Structure formats: structure tokens, C-alpha cells
Amino acid sequence: MERKQADYGTQDERYMIQGERYQGQQYSHIYFTRLHHMRTLLHALVPSRNPNVPVTTVLGLEEGKDCVLVGTLFKHMKLKPSILDEYSKERSVVPLVKPHNFMHPEDNLILEDESGRVALAGAIPPAAYVTGVVVALHGKETSAGNFLVEDVLEAGLPPQTLLPSINEDKYVVFVSGLSVGSSTFNPLQFQLLIDHITGHLGDENEQTVASKIVRVVVAGNSVHIAPRYLNGQTVAAKDQPRIAEPIKELDIMLTQLVASLPVDIMPGCNDPANFSLPQQPLHRCLFSGASTYNTFSSCPNPHEFELDNVKFLGTSGQNIDDLYKYSDAKDRLEFMERTLTWRHLAPTAPNSLGCYPYTDKDPFLVESCPHVYFVGNQDRYESRLLQGSEKQQVRLISIPRFCDTGIAVMLNLRNLECTTLSFSTSFDS
Amino acid sequence: MRSDGDVKSFFRQQKARPGAAAAAKPTGGVSKKQAPLPHQKQAAALLFHPTPDHADGADARREEEDRERKAREFDMDMRYGPCLGLTRAQRWHRAAALGLAPPPHALCSDDQPCLWEGRV
């Protein structure tokens, strides 16, 4: 039995921080380039959706006159934590934060461009938007000085290359949130996954399926290092091996995987990588065993690649988790869908999500639509095929944490269908 | 009062005391003084024979002032994006890459910071 192969091409250059120099620049540059790119895009869309309506700037608004505005949204949030609150003398009267996010019924949206800002009212629900999204709005200025929105024009799904027709089954396995070293991590469960993928488990049928797996993507949070070692104090010499222990264990596991098929590993928020997005690849030295194989590739987060010309784009989950804190949707897939229609992977960066202060570009703009869009470290498995207005098809996958659920996701390259691989080590369930 | 008159008087004020201005601003273009155009130098020498050095210096200074004025106008033009944390050349390159048609490259080929650097 021979393992299937797939042509792999990485498109991660845009997420690599190379030759950038920090010269005290602030985040205004990112917002400027984002607005500039999105405005050219939206200006091209306005004539087809709202013909005969003039496009203007905030400064050029006239009361009662129909027009289209393009700008960056700012969401004024009552409950958004602010460092200044901790220094304020008087006890704040701010109501308590809900357990899961910072939303409040009084949140309101403001639109900004280079010339000014205007408060928004009307047909734009604050709950669905976050700071940093660029939209075009059709409406008019009211006598109160607000902008009454009639219609929101989002950029929509980016253009997509044609999905290649593959006439045989080839699978890609996604796993995230291994959390090696945490109390919930079950080594046997992960070993079962490895043995299944490498074809050491099951009968001939299962091995045939396993031989069609062409790649494994580890989407973040692979290790868990006890927080008591990360409190900023010098780590005692006797504790140092304990910090390295989870990584060594992960390396042993990964070595078994890379010996039989290609593996991509992305950093997540708990991994020993930089905090701010885009997270740079985990250093090869961390994986002394696995990195000796050329099937091992350490990738940045976000990660963009192609397998047999099927385009993949994914993150380790920070962008969606942050949207969940500052906006509302019925499930995680809806957040993912929004980031695609806004054409921006992480609109809340740099506002509430760490981000490198780029001066000449915004790397998170989505210029071409992926076929598969995955997000790691979510609570549960969800998947949906998203249809765009121009026949784009995107498979959205929310990958659950493996250490909590024991679920890995298997995607078929032939028809973009998704199944789960579920592993359990207890008899009663 | 006309507003453009205001701007002009602002620039003239800056130029009237070149010594003070150079001391105050971190930018000061020093390199251009050594390279006045040769034919201008000759013309100046022919016309103002009694005081050639003086005329030559004034000419070069005027040219430099002109350059610096244009560079500052570029700094102040918010169409090309925020300027703090970038050198003029970097900002020019970004504007060109974004298709914003910035003014001629010559005035920003230096690695000077913008007008506001260190002041805000």
C-alpha cells in the first residue's frame, strides 16, 4: 500500500516579518493602507449596486442628500476594557461585563475616513460589526448630524480561482489544541490519532483510507506550559527541564508523523512564538527530532498554502476568538464568513488583537478567496460550504481543541467534504 | 484674511532666520549646499562679478529652501498617509506603491524624518 501525494505550494511570504525595522511607527499606517485598498475596491463596486448615487467623504456630507460613504468603522463600546479605567480616581459606574463578551445594548458605530468621523444610525446593527472593518454605506445625513444608513455595501467574497477537479480521494487532516503538557491532554488519545494516520491501526479498509491522507496540519496551541513558569521571573535551573518537557514530548509524537507524511505546524496563542499576529514559525530547534525530516514544515499563523491547486487559508483561532469577544453571531462559522465578506482576516487587529506595526501594507487583507478556510482551537467542530455571489465555494471549518474533544477533522480534496476523526480512550462513553 | 497667505507667511518666517530654523528642526538639508548647478554658478559669476561668493551662496540657499518647502508640503499632505515613524523616502515609496502619484521623487530621496518627527 502506497501513500498518496499532493503537490504542495506555500504562500506564506506575506505573513513573514523579514527586513522590517521598528522606527517608533504607530498603527495609523495599517488603517491607512487598509482603507486605501478597500476604498479602491468598494468604489469599483458602488456603481453596480447603487447607481446614480454620488460617493462622498465625511467632510463633504450634505444634510438630506443621498450619498455613499466609504470608511473604517469604529465601534464605541461601553464595556471595552481600557487601561485608563484602572487609574481613574472615582469608582466607575460601568455595568458588569457578561461572561463571554464585551457587548452592551448601547454600543454604537462611527464611520471614519481621512476627513472626519460621523455617528451612524439606521440599518446597520452594531452587534454584527467590529472596529476596523471597511464598508461602504448608502444613506443620508440627518438634521442631528448623524448618518442614517439605508444600505450597507460590503466588499463580499474575493474572486476565486476555479476549483481543480481531482478524481481520486485525497485527505487532509486538521488537528489543533493538542495542549501537550496540560492536565487534559491524553497521550493515548493522540497516539491513537498518530497510529491511525500512519496506518498502524485498523484493518485493511481503514489502512486504505489512511494511505490517502496527504498532509496533516497542526493549527496552533500544540503545547501547554504551566503559567507559573511564565510570570516574568527568572526560572530556576531545576525548573528549566520542566518547561521544555511538553515540547520534547510533542517532538517525539511529531517525529512519528513526519516519518510517514508531510506535517505543517502553526503557532497558536499558547505556543512559544511571538504574541502579535502574524505569528512567526516555531523555531526548528524546538523540534530536534522532527525537523530532521524534510516532510516537517514550521509555518506562520495565518497560514496559506495550496495542495493540488486547492487553496487553503487558516489561522489558529485568535482572529475569530477576538470577534467573539467584540461582536455577536449565531456560530463561529458566521464569524468566519464575515471575515471573508469583509475581505479581512483579522479586522480587530491592531485594535484589540496584537499585530505587527506594518507601515506599507496590511497583510491580513484577503485578496483571493480560498477554497478551504479553517480556524483552530474552537469549542466544537462545525463546517459549512459557503456559496459566493460569483460562484465561489468555500469550505469553512472550525477545528475543535483535540485535548478537550478528541476530534480531528478530515477533509476530502476531491469534493471538499469534511468528516471528523474521533478518538476515545474510555470504555463508558 | 486669505488662508494661503497665511501658509506663505508661515514658510517665510521659517526661512527668514535660517540659523535659528536649522537649530530648531532636526531635518536641515546640509548636503545640497556643496552642489550648486555649474551653469548657474557661471551665470551668477558673470552677472554679479564684484560679489560672486555671496550671490552663489544665496542662490544655493534659495534652491535648498525651495526643496525643503516642497518636502514639507509633501509631509503636510494627508493624502499620502500618516507620516510619523517613516522617513520621507519610505513614505514616498509607499505612496507610489499605492498609486497615489506623489510629487517628484527628487525631493524625498533623503532619509530624513518628516516635519513632525519628535515634535508631537
UniProtKB/TrEMBL annotation, chain A:
UniProt domain DNA polymerase delta subunit OB-fold: residue ranges: 26-152
InterPro entries, alphabetized: DNA_pol_a/d/e_bsu, DNA_pol_D_N, DNA_pol_delta/II_ssu, PolD2_C
Catalytic reaction list: DNA(n) + a 2'-deoxyribonucleoside 5'-triphosphate = DNA(n+1) + diphosphate
An MF annotation (GO) of this entry: DNA-directed DNA polymerase activity
Domain of life: Eukaryota
Subunit note: Heterodimer with subunits of 125 kDa and 50 kDa.
Protein name: DNA polymerase delta small subunit
GO cellular component: delta DNA polymerase complex
A Pfam family the protein falls into: DNA_pol_D_N
Record EC number: 2.7.7.7
Domain DNA polymerase alpha/delta/epsilon subunit B intervals: 172-381
Keywords for the protein's UniProt record, in alphabetical order: DNA replication, DNA-directed DNA polymerase, Nucleotidyltransferase, Nucleus, Transferase
Family: Belongs to the DNA polymerase delta/II small subunit family.
GO biological process, one term: DNA strand elongation involved in DNA replication
Automatic annotation (TrEMBL), chain B:
Superkingdom of the source species: Eukaryota
Stretches for region Disordered: 1-73
Biased composition (Low complexity): 12-28
Family annotation (Pfam families): DNA_pol_delta_4
Basic and acidic residues bias locations: 51-73
GO molecular function, one term: DNA-directed DNA polymerase activity
Protein's recorded name: Delta DNA polymerase
Species annotation: Lolium multiflorum (Italian ryegrass)
Lineage: Eukaryota, Viridiplantae, Streptophyta, Embryophyta, Tracheophyta
